[in-house]
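Sequence and fold:
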Amino acid sequence: MTSESPGSRPAAATPGVPPAVQAVQPVWSAPVRRTGGGVVALASVGLVVGGAAVLLVLVYLATFLGPGALLICLVLALIPLTVILLAVRWIDRWEPEPRPALWFAFLWGAGVSVATALIFDLGVQIALNLAGASRSTAGSGSDFTAAVIQAPIVEETAKGVGILLIFWVPRSRFDGPADGIVFAATVAAGFAFSENIQYFGVAMMEGGAADLGFTFLVRGVLSPFAHVMFTACTGIAIGLAARRRGAAAAGTILLGLLGAILLHMLWNGAFTVVDSRSLVAYYLLVQVPLFLSAVAVVVLLRRQEKRITERRLTEYAAVGWFSAAEVAMLATPQGRQQARAWASRQPRARKRAMQSFIRDATRLAFARQRMLNGTAGHVDRADEAELLALIQADRAGVIG
């Protein structure tokens, strides 16, 4: 909170607006600064690099699947992808991340991460051939190494780099573990989408409709969130690192990446060494509890986001930037629901102003939280100033 800002004083109630939102007489005006350049730059590079990588992956898949099979598998892969993205939207609902950053995350996962894994695997095969062997002649030991060691390390590292890029560039929008889960899940959703196309295609070519149906059941119905759960470890760690500095931040990220790799190894190892009869028991006794634990973590992080919003906005209310009624409206699910219900019956300009009011107030709360964590810099101070000015304009737009 800027120490030089003495705050605002609520004026009398204004007819025809939500009771919580009232006119204020500002006694200080924050300098308005355009933000988001890093997000836009990241999205621009991501669209080019990630889009090109996705195109290359699809061309690679089409070379051995054929256009018809590729189309069928692509449509099937869209089903678990839709489920994952709906879950991501639910997680991201309280403090939505910038759409350009989410697009970057998806394209990185679907294109760059998959291409990295394919190129690394190709390099391993070339090295084996130069050594006078091949994966097929090396036997089951080589297959186990590729599935249980190589794939988890390469894939989780590639996905983690994408999350790190988001962390480094639009740093002011990476507030904590909940944001890390959102970006990690989006990267993982893109990766699983491309990988599912490959797995569905291979199953259809080798075993027809029966194998395709079984593969879809395993990957699309029983385990659509497998990659999300793995990579979420990295995302949570990077979110925690946003609240730390130096070696502590780097160590936290490495621990998260290690967790992602180990969970991935556990999953791939089960399918490699466990027989079909024991696989169901393994799934129910190991993977289902892990998934339920992950859901519990997400729920707790969402509650933490709400508590942070309410506490920080209450601090701004104490110096006059909000009324107590506004804090209740902006920082509680019930208050937001009532505000959006009111806005839905208003002209479009008022509706958009209410949406901006909620969004900017939430961003302000998390900018304040970063400053209290001791990880804020001049960017966060400038963000606070800009957001306070935007909130004044949002309030005026709601009042009309």
